[in-house]
Design a protein that fits this description.
The chain is an alpha/beta fold and 120 residues long. The protein has two domains: 52 residues, no CATH class; 62 residues, no CATH class. Helices cover 38% and strands 17% of the residues. It has a three-stranded parallel beta sheet, sandwiched between helices. Strands 1-2 form a two-stranded parallel sheet. Helix 2 crosses helix 3. The N and C termini lie far apart (29 Å).
Amino acid sequence: MEEAARGAREAGGRTVGVLPGADVSTSTPNSWIELPIFTGLGQGRNLVLVLSAEAVVAVAGGWGTLSEIALARKHGRPVALLESWALPAASGDADLFTAGTPDEAVAWALAAAQRSDHDA
């Protein structure tokens, strides 16, 4: 997450951290986060994160990442997979994309978010 936030800030973007703890004593945002949101929800914060996004880039493959992917697809959010879970649906689901590079993942996610805006 730190590298994603760093990349976003260096590219001129704003960064929001949706954190599992209730305050800075239980969740410390990385130094690239401009707006930390302390949810106090533990892993339940994954739903807050997904519902706050227009598209999701899933990086790597822990169980929390799989949870975010599942929640995103359940709620109609497009997902770009980057060095993440090898999901069979990726070949038949237009809103699930396996990216080869971070730049490709971000470009696809931005385009998918724009498509979603026009579909609403």
